[in-house]
Design brief:
alpha+beta; 5-stranded mixed β-sheet; 17% helix; globular; 5-stranded antiparallel β-sheet; single chain; 3 helices
C-alpha cells in the first residue's frame, strides 16, 4: 500500500551559482513529510560518476538521501505517484517504495514544480532516468 500525504507546499529552486536545481513538496510550510528532488546544473564529471552521483537525488525530511532511485513519477489529476527503487528505502529512511502526493499547493506552484521535476528526473546517466515520467 503506498504512503500517501497531502502536499500543501510545492517549491522550486535553481541555484543562482549554477550548482543545482530542486523541486520539492512538503505537507506544510513547517515541514512534515517532504520530498526534495535535486540534480546538478552541469553535466556530471568523473567526480560525480565514480560514486554514482551522476543522476537525480532524492532527499527526505529526515535527510535520507539516495541517487537515481526514482523509477516512475507520474502526475494524474492532482496526484503525483512516485515509485522508488526498493533498495533505496533504507538510505531514504522510508518504509514504502510507492508514494502518492495529493497536490493541494497553489496551482501556479504546482505547474512550476511539475516543469522542474521533469527537468531534475531527466538529469544524468540514462539507466537512472525513470522508466515512466509524466510530470
Amino acid at each position: 500500500m503506498p504512503y500517501r500525504f497531502t502536499a500543501r507546499v510545492a517549491t522550486t529552486e535553481i541555484d543562482p551559482d549554477g550548482y543545482f536545481t530542486e523541486a520539492a513538496l512538503a505537507e506544510s510550510e513547517h515541514g512534515g513529510f517532504t520530498l526534495m528532488f535535486m540534480a546538478g546544473e552541469e553535466e556530471p564529471d568523473d567526480q560525480d560518476i565514480a560514486p554514482g552521483m551522476d543522476t537525480h537525488c532524492l532527499v527526505t525530511a529526515d535527510q535520507g538521501t539516495a541517487y537515481g532511485c526514482v523509477r516512475e513519477a507520474v502526475v494524474e489529476g492532482n496526484i503525483l505517484r512516485i515509485s522508488l527503487d526498493p533498495e533505496a528505502l533504507e538510505s531514504l529512511r522510508l518504509d514504502e517504495a510507492e508514494i502518492e502526493a495529493v497536490l493541494e499547493a497553489p496551482p501556479e506552484d504546482v505547474t512550476r514544480f511539475r516543469e522542474i521535476l521533469a527537468q531534475v528526473l531527466g538529469y544524468g546517466r540514462a539507466d537512472a532516468i525513470p522508466t515512466r515520467l509524466a510530470a
